[in-house]
Every structure is written in structure tokens, then in C-alpha cells.
Amino acid sequence: MSFYRVVVVGVGYVGLTTAACLASLGHHVVCADIDEAKVAALREGRVSILEPGLTELVAKGLAAGRLEFVVGARAAVGEAEVVFLCLPTPMGAGGAADLSAVEAVIAEVRGLLPPGCVLVTKSTVPVGTAARVTELLGRGDVAVVSNPEFLCEGSAVDDFMHPDRIVVGSDVQHAAERVAALYARVGVPTVLIDAASAEMVKYAANTFLAMKLSYVNAMAELCERLGADIADVAEGMGFDHRIGQSFLRPGPGWGGSCLPKDTHALLRMSEAAGFDFSLLRATIETNEGQRDRVVEKVRAAVDGRLDGARLGLLGLAFKAGTDDLRDSPALAVAHRLREEGAELVAFDPAVPAAVVGVTDDVAVVSDAGQAVKGADAVVVLTEWPEFRKLDWADMAGRMSGRVVVDTRNVLDQDILGLANLSVIGIGR
Ligand code: UGA
Q1: Is residue 247 within 6 Å of ligand 1 at its C-beta?
Q2: What is the pLDDT of residues 101-118, one digit of tens each?
Q3: Model's pTM, two decimal places?
Q4: Are 86 and 18 spatial neighbours (Cβ–Cβ below 8 Å)?
Q5: Distance of CA 15 from the midpoint of ligand 1 (Å)
Q6: How far is the CA of 384 from the centre of ligand 1 (A)?
Q7: ipTM of this model?
Q8: Identical fold at 5-192 and 194-428?
Q9: Ligand 1 atom 17: the closest Cα is on which residue?
Q10: Beta-carbon neighbour count of residue 10 at 10 Å?
């Protein structure tokens, strides 16, 4: 087993998880970030991201002397054998990925990378970026590898340690083998392919998941219209191993920092390549439509009068288990409701009431009771299990209306029924 000197540039959730997990596998990892306050906090083991197991792994890495944090990539790369770029690639103009952070770091380190070092792109980057990075580097002695990540927020450490597969793409064999060797102890199939294909795997996987969700949300609508129950339909479909049970839960539409960004970016790439990927466009349109369908359910819950209606929102995060609000469907729905004149008070177990500027659309409070107080209707937007366990008789007593819209199908309809509340779910 070989251990390597690794540098991770960018300690966001992907970078920090990658660094802490690689350190726990025995590698020596130096993390570089331009945010001085973040580096200072991490040196003391303070992790600001809500990610199970991550704080413990960072503490272990620091204690073992295998994890270090420095300000700026320049200070980190001098002795690196492998450098991971874990930088943000946000949605830029017209939906294409914005690569300016990646380009800036390459400009900064290109003269400093030691000969024989391997540069790895881990961020989701457009197909062809490894080739572009090779060109920008202009160094025949530094190879470029694409090693996309498949971490889900809320289970990132577990996903890293127990992935379904590892994808390593490079046109330089020995560089790909070194990156694959970093993961030797993880012990799962490694797909060794060319760099462009590895970059495409990431988009293909995320957009396929988005398509699966748009399909199930559209199917949920049809179930409602034809008198079927989406939960039963999904279970019946999911036992077919070619389909699988996961990613078949309907909701207010998919969101988060990855699926929306990646679907738009792939659509842009296909347009640029002269291909009309209508299936992908429909996937995005169906997702937009899902938010409108949720608004219509809420309208029905307040007898058609959204203007002036007081609504209690349960959940703001884009999914349960995270405090991440980026591209959250809950915020998109809230925005539409606000545009129609509704007054919104929201509670999310992971989003503190003190968070200012979350959104101009909602007032955030610190418990569910306050959110539903005086509400004409309540809308569940994130599938936090604690919403199911609320004292719904007590909630009913605080509400002025009698309807709860459950966009995640997490509530127990019988229990709410006993509290004299009716539930409008999705696809049932
Ligand atoms: C997603 C992918 O699942 C990861 O494999 C990938 O590594 C990651 O993006 C990334 O590119 O970094 P993540 O954004 O953390 O992970 O979130 P998901 O768990 O995929 O959820 C995405 C959205 O779909 C959420 O809004 C979630 O609530 C929704 N969803 C998911 C459903 O509505 N129903 C489901 O059955 C599953």
C-alpha cells in the first residue's frame, strides 16, 4: 500500500470531505483555501458544514498530523504528488459552468507544481476541461486527471468511504493509476477511462437522477388524476432491479447545488455541440412545472385566496439532513407564494431563525409551533423526519385553517386526521 502527499485546493464540502477521508486512509493531506477565517477555524478542528462524521475525521487527521490547513494554493503545492482541485464551478452566463476559480488557481500554481505531480479535477467541470487545463498548464511533466465525486450532502463521508464506484479519467496511464491507488483501501470497482468520458460520467449520472425525479413527479400528477398512489406505484416499479427503489420519492421538485446546475450546464453543452437534447429540456421544464403544481395545491388549501393568506412553511433546506439552501425547491415555492401575496413564516430544524437574508420572502422562526401559529394552511417542503413526530393536535390548535399540504409525503395522514386536519399530499 502506498501513501501519497496530497494537496486539496478549496475546502468547501467536497474538498473538506475528500481531504479528511484521504487523510483517514493514510495519506498526508494539505488543504489550501483563500478564506483565512475558514483556514484558522479548521486548524482548530472547527467545521462549519453540517455533515455527519466530518468533524470527527478532521479532528483525527489533525491529531495524527496527516491533515494540515494553509492559506492559498501557492503555499501548499511545492511537494505535492497529487493536487485535487475542489473549487466551485457555479452556473455562469446562460447556464454554462463558470470556470474562473479553476483558471485562477491554475495560473497561480502552474510554475510551482513539482515535476511528475498529478493535477486532479474533482469539481464538476464541462467535458473537455481536462484537455483545457492541460493546455493552460503548458507542462509536459504534470499530468491531468478527472476524478468526479459522487458525494451526497448529508452522507458525504459515508459515500466517500463506501462508494458504488470510483471513476478516474486520464489520457496518461501512470497518472490515472496513481489517483486510483489513493483509493486502494476503499476497495470498490474503479472505472479507468479517458478524461472526457470521466467528465461526462458525472453529468450523465446527475442528469439521469434529475430525469428519474422529474419522471416520478410527473407520474405522481398522473396518479392523482387517475386514482393511483405514487408510493405504491414506485414500490412496485422499484423492485425491478433495472429501475431500483431509490430516487423515486416525489416532492416539490429537485434542487440543491448540483442537479439544477448540472442539468443546465449539460443542456448548454449539447446546444453548443449542435444536439437538441429535448429529453433533458423536458426534465428541467417538468421540474419548473412541479413548483407551480405545489403552488396550486396550496391555493386549493386556502380556498383559492393566496393573497393575504398566512402560511406556515415547514422546511427550507433543499433536502433533509442538510442546512444547505442553495437552489432549494422550498425557496422557489416560497417565492412564488409570496408573489401571489401570501405571508410566509417558516421553520427548518437546521436553519437558525437568526439567519438573516436567507430570503426576502419568508420570516424564519425557531420552532414549528411559531411557524404554524395562526396559519391558514401549513406547507411541508423538506422531508425532515421530525415533522412527522410533531404533536399535530397541538399544531392544529395553533392553526386557524385545517389543511396541511405535504409536498414530501412525510406526514402520517391518520394522526393528522385525528387532529381534525386534512392532508393534501403528492401523487395520492
Ligand atoms: C447529488 C447527487 O445525488 C450526488 O450523487 C452528486 O455527487 C451530487 O449531487 C453532486 O454533484 O455533488 P445532492 O445534491 O447532495 O447529490 O442531493 P440529492 O440527494 O441528489 O438530492 C437532490 C434533490 O432531489 C433534492 O432536492 C432532493 O430532495 C430531491 N429528491 C431526491 C427527491 O425529491 N426525491 C428523491 O427520491 C430523491
Answers
A1: yes
A2: 999 999 999 999 999 999
A3: 0.94
A4: yes
A5: 18
A6: 15
A7: 0.97
A8: yes
A9: 152
A10: 25
